[in-house]
Amino acid sequence: MKTKEDYINLLKSAGVWDPVGDYEKIYNQYNFTEAGQDDPKAVKEFEADIHERCNRIPLEHIVGYAELNSNRYVVGTGVFIPRIQSLGIVDWIKENQAIDPSSLVYDLCSGSGAIGIEIWQMTNANIVCIEKSDLATKYLKRNILRHHAEKVAVYQGDIKEYFDKMLQKPVEAEIVISNPPYVPKEMAQPPEWGVHHPEESVYAEQDGLDIINASALFANRALKKDGVVLIEHDENQGESVSAILASNNFYNIQTIINEKYSDETGLSIFTIGYKL
Ligand SMILES: C[S@@+](CC[C@H](N)C(=O)[O-])C[C@H]1O[C@@H](n2cnc3c(N)ncnc32)[C@H](O)[C@@H]1O
Known about the structure:
Blueprint: H1 4-13, H2 19-27, H3 40-54, H4 59-63, E1 65-68, E2 71-74, H5 87-96, E3 104-108, H6 114-123, E4 126-131, H7 134-146, E5 152-156, H8 162-165, E6 173-178, E7 183-184, H9 191-194, H10 199-202, E8 203-204, H11 210-222, E9 223-232, H12 238-246, E10 250-263, E11 266-275
Parallel strand pairs: 3-4, 3-6, 4-5, 6-9, 7-8
Antiparallel strand pairs: 1-2, 9-11, 10-11
This protein binds S-adenosylmethionine (SAM).
């Protein structure tokens, strides 16, 4: 086995932004001893994990989970990895919006379900997650099961078609959140997102605004008066998202940056609006 510094240097030269943190997360999965007399099979597996990370396979896909607050969410190849940036939305709801166990919250483009489950844990509200991808929906259902989140319901499908396909008219909601794909098609991304995430979880048509538009239309239809929509987006999209919300019957529109959940991989940034 090489030294710790050797592995960290390998990760650093591959362009990994947190080589020490990633090394430790991978290393801590194994029961290696200080004496160095380790099971050769375990060493081989550990080195395979490091090799994958050097090839910019996302850390969470390698270890099989992502952590938000103290919760683990299972993820794997083919599903978007929840980001701490999304906790900006969860904190905003905690501080600004009174919701209770009878409230209805939609989590649009819910992926593995982390944001919806975080909001359910905090409020015990009824959550409806809407996700298009088959694979992401499988992870979403696993995460609901793991967290005993019985009040989190799943609808697998396109948010653009939800209202046409639902037989029953949905009850009016208090909150609609959305972390949609929003990267413009031509914008280069680090390989973790540009190569190793499904394209439809990262990129969107119309300069990245297609699913943001669909989320605003959805929220306009689903929210009760004074209900809130919160949409995550890129740091350059604040004005466009505000304009989209203004043209969909929202008032008191604000773009919010949460420093606590911003890091070297991006700002925690989202735009909110209240339904007229
Ligand atoms: C940026 S990811 C966010 C996932 C999750 N909200 C999170 O933060 O981990 C966007 C998700 O939207 C889903 N998606 C893309 N277009 C969609 C659509 N039209 N309707 C529903 N889901 C969609 C993708 O499959 C992906 O899981």
